[in-house]
Write a structure and sequence with these properties.
The chain is α/β, with parallel strands linked by helices. The chain contains 9 helices and 7 strands; from the N terminus they run E-H-E-H-E-H-E-H-E-H-E-H-H-E-H-H. Strands 3-2-1-4-6-5-7 form a 7-stranded mixed beta sheet, sandwiched between helices. The two termini are 33 Å apart.
């Protein structure tokens, strides 16, 4: 069984995207766990509108803030053999989970993710993700990267790694998948893409944010993980 874990904070505008995609999956052997950081909007109400479509559904309120913490809380409550971490604004086709589960089993993968298709009309963002997806493909063999809006990790590997490092303020998702190669096999799932909102790019500016990510990349190589907000990055959850 897959355990779908989604951290939320004031996501009433977006939570329907991921839950609608999950509702329409041809693969049904999964549970849905939403870990909410005490939202002040109608996130919970919106999420519960979809509860009837899932055999197993949990909505956990965790007042402590932090996306890594929320994901870890969800993992501890999960019953599945494979944990799947999504953001609330991702969408994918109806066979996504079926194909992902098939590849993970056949290719004997311990941790994985997929390529990104940006939901945007902005050409600069589309160009960025062409380059980014190519880098994701190349780096999987020596220094894997995978954004937190689509990460698969089997239970044994996840807990062997002690989950997401909650002391890391930025690129905690990259840290997890990079550590996964030391205890198991990481590979990008073939021919699968998640459609993801580009709200952060649209809010901060495409190239400004791209340069910030590049700086983070080199910082991690030469200095280590980012444990202070030196890049002035909106931490934890998306801005509204």
């Amino acid at each position: 069984m897959l355990s779908i874990i989604v951290p939320t904070l004031n996501e009433e505008r977006y939570i329907g995207r991921i839950l609608r995609s999950l509702k329409n999956q041809t693969f049904k052997d999964f549970e849905v766990i939403i870990v909410d950081a005490d939202s002040k909007d109608k996130t919970k109400k919106k999420a519960y509108e979809f509860k009837k479509y899932f055999k197993n559904f949990k909505f956990i309120i965790e007042k402590r803030k932090g996306v890594s913490l929320a994901r870890n809380v969800g993992a501890k409550a999960a019953k599945g053999d494979i944990f799947v971490f999504f953001d609330s604004d991702g969408t994918f086709d109806n066979h996504f989970l079926r194909e992902a589960a098939k590849q993970i089993k056949e290719r004997k993968i311990n941790a994985s993710g997929c390529y990104t298709k940006p939901i945007t009309k902005t050409k600069a963002i589309k160009v960025f993700f062409v380059v980014y997806n190519f880098w994701i493909f190349l780096s999987q063999y020596f220094y894997p990267h995978m954004p937190g809006f689509c990460i698969f990790c089997d239970r044994k590997t996840f807990f062997k790694l002690n989950g997401f490092d909650e002391t890391i303020l930025l690129a905690e998702d990259f840290d997890l998948v990079n550590r996964s190669k030391k205890v198991g096999k990481f590979r990008v799932l073939r021919n699968l893409r998640i459609k993801s909102s580009m709200r952060r790019f649209e809010e901060e500016g495409t190239w400004k944010l791209a340069m910030k990510y590049l700086c983070v990349f080199f910082y991690r190589i030469f200095k280590g993980e980012v444990r202070s907000n030196i890049f002035n990055y909106q931490l934890g959850y998306h801005k509204k």
